[in-house]
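step 3/5: co-fold with iron/sulfur cluster
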Amino acid sequence: MAANSHIEWTDHTFNPWTGCTNISPGCDNCYAEAWSKRSGQVKWGKHPRKRTTDSYWKAPVIWNNKADFFEAAHGHRQRVFCASLADVFDNQADPMWRADLFATIRATPRLDWQLLTKRPQNIAKMLPDDWGTGYPNVWLGFTAEDQIRFNQRKRFIGAIPAAVWFISYEPAIGPIRITADDPVPHWVIVGGESGHHARPMKAEWVRNIIEDCRRMDIAPFFKQWGHYQNNPLVSECGLASDIAKERDALGKGGGELDGKVIREFPVTSQAKRRFAA
Ligand code: SF4
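step 4/5: write tokens
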């Protein structure tokens, strides 16, 4: 079974509904909003969200049923990014839909669900009653596009129990440093913004956050520079973009840091059990 997502840090994407409202500077060039305008599937902002179809909702159970096959082929548990065209912890989404989502998550223990939000302040009140110390197959994460957003949202790391806590530092539009006084996530995804209106990302931001991850035993996943002007092969070494692309074609704008690919994942208790050497 092939993975169905082109996002480098996951295997599948699942959208229980579509539609959202921009709430943060990281939303300015929201891919999902552009998709909604192109497709006409849902109106963005204070309009009703749109639940996806019953047949679409069957997909996670099918992935779960094929877990042996997937794990034999790929060597890891399937990761499911939820949601790419919405926000799981959106106040405007129907609570019954979220309850159905958690029922699906409970019914698919062979999938690792990556719930990424820009509304971590809503997580605690929107988790199911049996959350306990966290479902073993759910990773909770929030986006932090710069230091201000990291500082606003970091208090939720660890305050809400979860098998994995992660930060999506994407689109990186300002520097972030994680210090010894901060709550420590298990995983940090780093990426520059892509597309016509992409904002710049500096190479030093990436080097610094990777250094912080190394110092604090956080798994880093550097996805991409966003566009080649951000890539240090261009910004520091002075190469033309097309030459830089020949040397570093990973992701959008290249995805190597000083000649290295840095794409790590947190080691979960689930993975340890199943893939122990
Ligand atoms: S929270 Fe995510 S999906 Fe919603 S508007 Fe912002 S970037 Fe788009």
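step 5/5: annotate
The pocket of iron/sulfur cluster is lined by residues 20, 22-23, 27, 30, 32-33, 87, 118 (CB under 6 Å).
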